[in-house]
Design goal:
This protein is α/β, with parallel strands linked by helices. The chain has one domain: Rossmann fold, CATH 3.40.50. Helix content is 49%, strand content 12%. The chain is built from eleven helices and six strands. The chain has a six-stranded parallel sheet with strand order 5-4-1-3-2-6, sandwiched between helices.
């Protein structure tokens, strides 16, 4: 029985860094945002931007020379099930039947994965990563400012509501998938817990996913080309928490805290 670990969560919620550290702690194969990479190759605009940034795989090679991605890129399949099966087959050829980690984030991509694999032979496990709502709001504002987004969609209230909707929807959706036996396990991880209590998070995950075996070597099965830019040079990223959000304040802050503090507390209790 093969195991696929899907990491879901909002953008800038720690999905990429979680995948990288899992691949150094456990004997797993981390391929980054597998279905996002497929979307890069469908869209010429996305692909051109991707190539312009001269991104490399975390193995240190360019994607067209990487032992994992080169064949997939050169023999690209537009059909999602076929593409995903090729990814799994390539992983098996390189590293054997170790767990496969996909940090494609989006739940619509998870639905496509469920349709692509044989659930009698492959079990799907989901880790949902949540960042503290204050940090998520600050990250959104910072990103929106860099992209010169309109104030109507780049303000703290907008990102607060988005944090609430996206995480509540994801939790309900994933519990429903588990109830329908479409996924095998579902775990909520808070980004801050991972940063400050990493070993506790690893212990929690290994108890939930008993097939996880320690990585006893310095070698990491990591071939990520589509996530956080900080990883593309083949170097392990240091865990540095950004405290900037503490000094961020808006006229909506008291209202947001009053509403989201108890909800975030309840989600943490659920996890």
């Amino acid at each position: 029985m093969s195991n696929i670990i899907f990491i879901s969560g909002n953008a800038r919620s720690g999905t990429t860094i979680l995948g990288h550290y899992l691949s150094s702690k456990f004997n797993v194969f981390f391929a980054g945002e597998v279905l996002t990479n497929r979307e890069f190759h469908i869209s010429k605009k996305l692909l051109a931007n991707y190539q312009l940034r001269n991104r490399k795989c975390t193995c240190g090679l360019s994607p067209n020379k990487c032992i994992f991605w080169s064949d997939l890129i050169n023999n690209f399949s537009n059909d999602i099930p076929s593409y995903y099966k090729k990814c799994i087959a390539k992983k098996n050829k390189i590293s054997g039947d170790i767990p496969f980690i996909d940090s494609s984030k989006n739940l619509s991509r998870l639905k496509n994965i469920i349709k692509s694999v044989n659930l009698k032979k492959e079990k799907i496990h989901v880790i949902h990563s949540i960042k503290n709502y204050k940090g998520q709001i600050y990250s959104g504002l910072k990103y929106g400012k860099s992209k010169k987004k309109n104030f109507l969609i780049n303000n703290s209230l907008y990102y607060a509501l988005y944090w609430l909707y996206s995480n509540i929807y994801s939790i309900v959706f994933l519990y429903n998938l588990k109830f329908k036996k479409k996924i095998d396990t579902f775990t909520i991880i808070f980004y801050e817990d991972f940063i400050f209590n990493q070993e506790e998070v690893f212990l929690k995950l290994s108890k939930k996913m008993k097939f996880l075996n320690p990585n006893n070597s310095t070698f990491s099965h990591s071939h990520e080309i589509g996530g956080n830019d900080g990883f593309v040079k083949g170097k392990k990223e240091k865990l540095i928490y950004q405290y900037d959000w503490i000094f961020s304040y808006s006229i909506f802050s008291p209202l947001i805290s009053l509403f989201l503090d108890p909800i975030q507390f309840l989600i943490k209790k659920l996890s």
